[in-house]
Amino acid sequence: MKLRMLLVCAAALTGAAHAQSTPITMEAVEKGREQYHRTCAQCHGRNMVNSGTTVYDLRKFPTDQHERFVTSVMQGKGNMPSFKGAIDDSALQVLWAYVVTRGGKEL
Ligand code: HEC
Fold it and tell me: Which residues touch 9 (CB under 8 Å, ≥6 apart)?
């Protein structure tokens, strides 16, 4: 049972990795962790942990929706401001690496 769940996760991650131009490495995840704690943690919570009632729980963000991630962060959504001009492409990529691996737990 446990093994099957692991396989499903691995398949989901492989799919996400394909949508990426660069492969997700632990180094990218670590950079993403730093970037996240500088610019996102004040709302989304340290290590992506928050109550999930008012702010989106990033640990649940669908790993196959890279485009949606980019659009939401760059254009803003609801009460989240746009990060256009504040976050460049490489920062966006490492943030995605951090979120899609659930903070490196699923790399
Ligand atoms: C000022 C508080 C705030 C900050 C800072 C913030 N967010 Fe958000 N974020 C929100 C809120 C509120 C939502 C829920 C938006 C909604 O669905 O109405 C959200 C939603 C999201 C979503 C889901 C959007 C969707 O498509 O449903 C993503 C992804 C996200 N944030 C990523 C980030 C990242 C990455 C950062 C750092 C660069 C960040 N956020 C910084 C408040 C914030």
Answer: 106
Count the domains in the chain: 1
**Which tens digits make up the pLDDT trace of 43-88?**
999 999 988 788 999 999 999 999 999 999 999 999 999 999 999 9
Range of the domain at 21: 2-100
Output the domain CATH number for residue 82.
Answer: 1.10.760.10
Question: Measured from the CA of 40, which atom of ligand 1 is nearest?
Answer: 37
Residue 64, in any domain of the structure? yes
Query: Which residues line ligand 1 at a C-beta cut-off of 6 Å?
Result: 39-40, 42-44, 55-56, 58, 61, 68-69, 72-73, 77-81, 83, 87, 95
Cβ(36)–Cβ(98) under 8 Å?
yes
